[in-house]
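Why run this: before we spend reagent on co-expression, it is cheaper to look at a predicted model of the complex and decide which construct boundaries make sense. The entries below are exactly what would go into the expression plan.
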Amino acid sequence: MARSGPPAASPAPEGLLTPLQFLKGVGPQRARQLQRLGLETVEDALYFIPFRHEDRTRLTALSALEPGKTQSCAGTVVGISPPPRGRQRLPFSVMLRDATGYATASWFNAPYLERVFARGQRVVLHGKVVRYRGAIQIQHPDYEIVEAGEDERIHSGRLVPIYHQTEGVGQRALRALMWRVVEAHAGDVADPLPEAVRARRQLPGLADSLRNAHFPPAEEALRTARRRLAYDDFLVLQLGLGILRARTSRARGIAMKPRGELARRLRAALPFALTAAQDRVWSEIRTDMAAPSPMHRLLQGDVGSGKTVVAALAVATAVEAGYQAAVMAPTEILAEQHFMTFQQLLAPLGLPIALLTSAVKGRERAGRLKAAAEGELACVVGTHALVQEGVEFRRLGLAVVDEQHRFGVEQRARLRAKGEHPDLLVMTATPIPRTLALTLYGDLDVSVLDELPPGRRPVVTVARTEGKRPQIYEFLREQVTAGRQVYVIYPLVEESAALDLKAATEMAEHLRKDVFPDLAVGLLHGRMSFGEKDEVMRRFKAGEIHVLVSTTVIEVGIDVPNASVVLIEHAERFGLSQLHQLRGRVGRGPWKSYCILLTGESPGEEARERIAAMTETTDGFKIAEADLRLRGPGEFFGTRQSGLPQFRVADLLRDAPILEPARQDALGIIAADPELRAPEHRGLRHALLSRWRGKLDLASVG
Ligand code: ADP
Ligand code: MG
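The model came back. Tokens follow.
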């Protein structure tokens, strides 16, 4: 939950900034408990929106409970059965009665309930109804004990808010507090939204929306309230991104308009023609580079769509215009891979290029730093080592950032700060659902490579369990016999890197000795030196290794078209986008290719869904949507590290329909009033300053 802004930046009347402790009935202890929920001031509490509402206008009679449904009901406790001594695995049960009949509620692993329930209490329950041994049972319900003398308008007979809780603060106590806060203070909130915008989008006022988001009179009021609050989150975000973008496009950058000789020679040397998508995207980038304002462009393209060549064309163009280029990748292996690819493409044109990662040390490092600073290097490829202090360029004109979602706004800004308004090209191989692209890259123009090079066939993807291992080995052998090559992938989980390494090493040994004694089995892992990895990759590319056992270091970037099978061990341990990246290692040649997802006998539910998504589609955008759905937006992108303000209410999935209108409005407002100086935008300006804090300024460096 976001805090309110510093007082100086907020137009909020005193009342909103009142610490909760000053409210009647909130003592120091309660205040500390509320702090654990992120609630310090009245304003925090107003924006502490319930995560769901329970319809208690329609409590189900106990005799009418239906197995299979999730329902709410109420009754009087008539019996309590803790699990018998020594049989703690049995549930704790409570028998309830109402005018129509009886039902049992049961909880596993909940001995503390003995201190909660007592005969004669009235309770309200919400949970899943099942039939168990012929009787109706509600399993693991949420419960509330109804106490005498409470304000029943709040807790029953209406849509009742259910809040996230913290230890020591009961649902009812929290709800009663929220009721008082909303009653007393929702009206203090100034609505920052210009009346015209509000009317056009048919959004309710802010005060009403806050009231109804907590204690709605009906479903419809709740829906529009949430819509309004989500709109505000989106608007503030899009306004900030829009301001950043407007500043960038007003900034004086470098107009790079060389004759295009180097790019032409690079294209001529390629063993293939560009796809129509590559052609289109390249011309978008070229136009940006030629323009006098700095390029600020995101290049999205599925695995294998050919982003590297496009980036190389941009590098060649910058160099021909007399500038240097920097290419930043998130991992050492990817930086190394890029370095090799760029060298292959650019060295024949006579462009000096160097690698800079933390693995490059001592004299070598000093030499490369000097060459970059003096402008001798045309292009430096590296990891985030590139943005560290001490790395300088004489004339940095182009910054390329690969796998952007692993970098934040800040790192992006720091790389650009190595030059004077250099052009920026951000590439991502994780296609981003449109909602997210707008949210996180609202300050970038977007190009999409929506076409794979010709001849690619979808990778046949299957899920298998351990029992099928002998048949899988048989299949791998058939493929190798037919002339193909094979990857066997092991997960590399950071906290147990050593263990996983052991597993991969042992597996390579086992395959070499026992399974494929007649084949060449290689091993690749992150602890090897650049030279060692390079040598293994070179031999694999040359076809001297048939079966390559690898940790996930090969996740991105590796390109061996003759490889036709990727066998992923412990597939349940991988994230969806990672699985998709790994699958992208095959299907790069004209052969039918396979991805085999090997799991234990019973992977968890989420793992099963990930694996199902993989077997159902090879479309990176669909995979990304599924990933977003399964993990939620925060996890998906690590929004924390993105450096953007957090949403207070909006949920990218649920509220997606209001995102585009909010973006349109933000663009309109900024076009008319770039720094929000007009009187009718005063409220928005305050909201923006307080929600973005210092970030608007920081980010404007980029
Ligand atoms: P990614 O977008 O995943 O970075 P790459 O740039 O690594 O994709 O390209 C994947 C493979 O496709 C490489 O082997 C590359 O040489 C090849 N490739 C790129 N563009 C084309 C094209 N237009 N026609 C045929 N092959 C291409
Ligand atoms: Mg790539």
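Residues 1-55+160-189 form a domain with the DNA polymerase; domain 1 fold (CATH 1.10.150). Confidence is low (pLDDT under 50) at residues 1-12, 698-702. Bring this page to Monday's planning discussion.
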